[in-house]
Amino acid sequence: MNWDDIRIFLAVARAGQILGAAKRLGLNHATVSRRVASLEQEAGAKLFRRLTTGSELTLAGERLLAVAERMEADVISARAEIAGEGEDISGTVRVGAPDGFGVAFLAPRLWRLNERHPGLSIQLVPVPRSLSLSRREADIAITVDRPTEGRLVAAKLIDYSLGLFASRAYVAEHGLPEDAAALGRHRLVGYVPDLVFSPTLDYAAEISEHWNAAFAVSSAMGQVEAVRAGAGIGILHSFIARGMDGLVAVPFARPIHRSYWIVYHESMRLTRQIQVAAAFIAEIVAQERRIFA
Asked: Which end of the chain, N or C, is more open, meaning fewer C-beta atoms within 10 Å of its C-beta?
């Protein structure tokens, strides 16, 4: 099979539509459609079901996807091995991260990787959802769970904690709760339960089994800003809240402990820009480990 056709097939499978794949590839819609039809003819089977909302893989398409991703991994590894060790590191690396870690920690620091490698382009995507490495939504992902499926390389980055915090203005007006039962007399700021992208982040019950947030925000940084503004008491990342003036910890609450993992696809193991970026993230976290303690 022609690698260029396989590359186009992968783009359509990941985008879920021919038009989206064409935009990513810098090709016109007709060219992509024609190349997919050519590949289907060569394979002797329909690879996509055309829907009004896009293109969905058939069973044959699912089978080809697994083969195509192995081919892609081999191509990436071969290019990495051929590249000279002394060659300047260049290209684009997209890093996906939960918004708390991505905005509060990575955004002020990750850009310094460009100082070391001016030819490297870094894209930081700090969003409150998981990003697919197999679909190339990100090259490197910071996750709150160690992945258990897929051809992924994972290493623990750092342990962190969350705690109860309120603004000084809120405390001056309403005081601090002495125990979990007293939380019922306070305004609570929380997350939107059905939008939590990992069970690991559904942690309110560890503070109180009767946690009932009057105001819910679907992002960690949104919760921080709401608590800072006096909206109520919230469960915040300690490494963020401790560094902000005007926030105070609620003493009775025990810390909630979680971990960040750094993850990338196995096919990227030999890709130099991915390895450099992953090593830099691990380095800056190690340098500032004390803020997570």
From this structure: C
